[in-house]
Write a structure and sequence with these properties.
two-stranded antiparallel sheet; 24% strand; 9 strands; 174 residues; 3 helices
Length: 174
């Protein structure tokens, strides 16, 4: 089975779209491809390119530590099997196996992290191919919107909380 793994500093990246590079491994844990992450500099278009590269390399599954709901949704729509690994120092050889006991399979979009940037874009009328066609409202550079979480109207039952990485995250109230 061909597996895509996001890499940062020679370990599994903490956040999928912020990885320095992507490796593609085969069943023997041999790296059959490695490429720079186009999502680092190209915004929404870069994430689309990243997904297309993963599919083009024949990956059937993807290993993640953290991933946003929007990108997770696109992966699931491409019939990719997405697995969450808790430890970024898990050996690559363990991730080549058909059976991944140390991983949880993501099958629902809600298993990804809500994106504050996406919510902010929607509050401002949308962005990129979501609302403005293929080229996007900023020619593929979505980060030109102001992404101030305090201006976002949150869905009912959700509130803001600062996580350990000092970034905004949403949590459901119980």
């Amino acid at each position: 089975m061909i597996t895509a793994i996001p890499i940062k500093d020679d370990h599994i990246a903490s956040h999928f779209s912020r990885a320095d590079s992507m490796i593609i491994i085969n069943e023997q844990a041999e790296v059959i491809a490695r490429f720079a992450n186009p999502a680092l500099a190209a915004g929404c278009d870069g994430k689309k390119q990243l997904l297309n590269l993963i599919v083009a390399h024949g990956a059937e599954r993807v290993i993640v530590r953290n991933i946003g709901q929007q990108l997770l949704s696109k992966m699931l729509n491409h019939q990719l099997n997405v697995f969450h690994v808790k430890n970024g120092r898990t050996a690559i050889e363990e991730l080549a196996s058909d059976h991944l006991p140390q991983c949880e399979q993501f099958s629902e979009v809600t298993q990804g992290r809500p994106s504050m940037k996406y919510l902010a874009k929607q509050a401002n009328g949308g962005c990129c191919d979501h609302e403005h066609g293929e080229g996007g409202c900023h020619g593929g550079h979505c980060d030109s919107h102001v992404h101030d979480a305090s201006d976002i109207e949150l869905p009912e039952g959700m509130h803001m909380k600062r996580c350990c990485q000092k970034k905004h995250s949403l949590l459901r109230q119980n």
